[in-house]
Write a structure and sequence with these properties.
Length: about 150
């Protein structure tokens, strides 16, 4: 069975109440439930983890190397600042899809730069919470084509 880690970064624990006009009204718990259910319908085991701490996210990426077939990563603001997360993704040699709820390219200039895009398989942004389902399907298709 394919196994995927859905990894969420800082402030995403506040989804549903944090700037719903930008990020929507769906909570992180609802997104995680949707990911697990969608994965189960496609014979994919989905595990979810969220942290506001960069080091915890790096550790989760490292730990994924021997546990998961791929990662979906919404690094939040760390997307635009964290060389450590970029290096962690590059070092584990797992396919990673970079995910954003909002279209980061249509927002403030500083959000246009992503360190993760340099090492990610691809990027999905602007589709709100539905982006997670799209990312699961895209990662599964990639893993199936690689095997």
């Amino acid at each position: 069975m394919t196994s995927i880690l859905v990894l969420n970064g800082p402030n995403l624990n506040l989804l549903g109440t944090r700037q719903p006009e930008v990020y929507g009204s769906t909570t992180l718990a609802e997104i995680e439930e949707s990911c697990v259910a969608h994965g189960a319908s496609r014979d994919i085991s989905v595990s979810c983890f969220q942290s506001n701490h960069e080091g915890a996210l790096v550790d989760a990426i490292h730990d994924a190397r021997n546990t998961f077939d791929g990662i979906i990563l919404n690094a939040g603001a760390y997307t635009h600042t964290s060389i450590a997360l970029m290096d962690a993704v590059a070092s584990v040699e797992l396919p990673v899809i970079e995910l954003h709820l909002s279209n980061i390219h249509a927002r403030e200039e500083f959000r246009h730069k992503s360190y993760l895009s340099k090492v990610a398989l691809g990027q999905i942004c602007g589709f709100g919470s539905h982006g997670y389902v799209l990312a699961i399907d895209a990662l599964k298709a990639h893993l199936d084509s690689a095997s």
